[in-house]
Specification:
- Helices cover about 35% and strands about 20% of the residues.
- The protein is α+β, with helices and mostly antiparallel strands and about 500 residues long.
- The chain has 3 domains: about 240 residues, HUPs (Rossmann fold), CATH 3.40.50; about 90 residues, 2-Layer Sandwich (Uridine Diphospho-n-acetylenolpyruvylglucosamine Reductase, domain 3); about 130 residues, no CATH class.
- Strand 2, helix 3 and strand 3 form a beta-alpha-beta unit.
- Helix 1 crosses helix 7, helix 2 crosses helix 7 and helix 10 crosses helix 11.
Length: about 500
């Protein structure tokens, strides 16, 4: 067991090593310290204060009052303010709105968890202060245990190397440079270091609430794993995270080279991605989407759908037998993206179209009866109805346009064919399957986000769903024979004829 003197040396050396290894204070003249009043952030304050003073770095403490614990939250604020006053350090505070209110936590079409909403509010305050005060960076009190917990949390979510690499010592997020000088220290060492110097801190009772996922990992899972695998578990996991970060940095650099030579204004050429490993292709598309639309657009499932649609998921450049040297890719298609954006593929190029869906639901048509042998527009979707024969229409991907189906002319005889949006309770009895399925489950299977589902037009007859674009037609309305009379319906998004 280390003596206090040895512990002081170890902790301070670890912090100093991180500062020098990652150049954390290099070029920094004004640094913000995120201080909540807990042991981690108080250790950050007391360890960095003398180091910054030696280097001539100005410090401003940033405290965010989440207002979740009543008087206890206000007590944290008073405690940190008084500590800063004693040290002669500038102090600024931000306040959250009522985070218990679902309306306050609403973002787009979803309601954030309390934990996520608190984080978003806190980081919004950091961004605002970084701009107002001209901060060169914001230092956070994350340590080795935070890294190991993050790795496990992201592992069970199916994250790749970038996610598993977890917290980086230096990272720019939404224009703010976040710095983490304590990543080589663990929480128990930091508490002992504080006690050894007679420094106090505040305890947050919500840290023991295992309803929060991270607290459950910290309070239940990690102690069990340490008892089974040894106390060195956190450092081993943190080392794995560091190795993953290094590997990911190489892959990101390679993907950036591809995107740099392939991207234009809101566009991405597909040809440079051909022949590249899947890891590079995925990162290239993800990085491009992230740049164009932000994190809400660039989700894993969205990237996978794009790769699959571009024939970039499996083997690249399948050569056409009829035209050697030409690759097999669908020449033109479009798909909706979260947030009302649109992705268009044409002539081997992806184009990101921002805020494509401008109409509000109150302004759009709720339903429309389809005339035969006519082309009509339904809220930005071109619907073509024509006579045909047989059932040789190609099945596509649910909710992706253009899409086509063939329906039995006999089954539709004397009935109105209607186009409308999904409604709760809608079901379809698809060909080749016994029974019926909820349309909602069809959307879930192909991972169409909830906020996008009411943008997919359906074909309905006698209030029965006949077809979901890209899915099988209802068995009752299937063309019975290859030479049977059919009504062919084609749907495409307006504007697909021009780039």
């Amino acid at each position: 067991m280390k003596s206090l003197k040895e512990l002081f040396v170890v902790v301070e050396k670890r912090v100093g090593d991180v500062l020098s290894r990652y150049g954390i204070l290099q070029g920094v003249s004004h640094l913000g310290l995120a201080v909540s009043g807990g042991s981690d952030s108080m250790a950050l304050l007391y360890l960095l204060h003398p180091l910054c003073r030696q280097r001539g770095v100005e410090i401003t403490v940033l405290h965010f009052n989440h207002r979740l614990r009543g008087a206890a939250s206000d007590g944290d604020e008073v405690f940190v303010r008084e500590c800063c006053k004693k040290l002669g350090i500038a102090f600024t505070v931000g306040y959250a709105a009522d985070l218990h209110s679902p309306e306050v936590r609403r973002e787009g079409g979803r309601v954030l968890s309390l934990e996520m909403a608190a984080r978003e509010a806190r980081h919004s305050f950091f961004r605002q202060q970084a701009q107002t005060l001209g901060l060169d960076g914001v230092a956070l009190g994350h340590h080795c245990n935070d890294v190991s917990e993050t790795l496990l949390l992201r592992l069970v979510r199916g994250s790749g190397a970038a996610g598993l690499g977890g917290m980086r010592p230096r990272a720019v997020i939404n224009g703010v440079c976040y710095l983490r000088p304590l990543l080589d220290c663990d929480s128990s060492e930091l508490r002992l270091w504080l006690k050894g110097h007679n420094y106090t801190w505040r305890e947050d009772a919500t840290n023991n609430d295992v309803e929060f996922q991270r607290n459950m990992v910290r309070q239940k899972l990690m102690p069990t794993l340490r008892s089974l695998l040894g106390e060195s578990l956190d450092r081993a996991l943190a080392r794995s995270a560091e190795l993953l970060r290094e590997d990911d940095a190489v892959l990101e650099a390679l993907a950036d080279e591809v995107v740099a030579g392939a991207s234009g204004v809101a566009t991405l050429q597909l040809a440079p991605l051909e022949g590249k490993p899947l890891a590079i292709r995925r990162r290239a598309v993800y990085g491009w989407l992230l740049r164009e639309g932000g994190g809400a657009v660039a989700g894993f499932e969205v990237v996978q759908r794009i790769l699959e649609r571009c024939n970039l998921q499996g083997e690249i450049g399948r050569v056409s037998e009829e035209k050697p040297g030409q690759t097999l890719q669908e020449p033109e298609w479009q798909m909706s993206l979260p947030g009302g954006h649109l992705l268009r593929c044409r002539n081997g190029k992806l184009r990101f179209i921002r805020d494509h869906k401008e109409r509000q639901h109150s302004e759009r048509l709720s339903e429309l009866v389809l005339p035969r042998d006519r082309t009509i527009l339904f809220n930005g979707v071109k619907v073509v109805v024509k006579d045909g024969t047989g059932f040789s229409c190609k099945q596509g991907e649910v909710g992706v346009f253009p899409a086509q189906c063939a329906l039995s002319a006999a089954a539709l005889q004397g009935r109105e064919l209607v186009v409308r949006y999904w409604q709760p309770g809608d079901r379809i009895s698809p060909t080749g399957m016994g029974g019926s399925r909820k349309v909602q489950d069809v959307f879930t299977d192909v991972k169409i986000p909830r906020e996008e589902r009411d943008k997919v037009p359906l074909l309905v007859c006698d209030n029965e769903v006949v077809w979901v674009p890209g899915y099988r037609v209802a068995a009752k309305y299937a063309v019975p024979a290859a030479d049977g009379a059919a009504v062919v319906v084609e749907m495409s998004l307006c504007g697909m004829d021009s780039d």
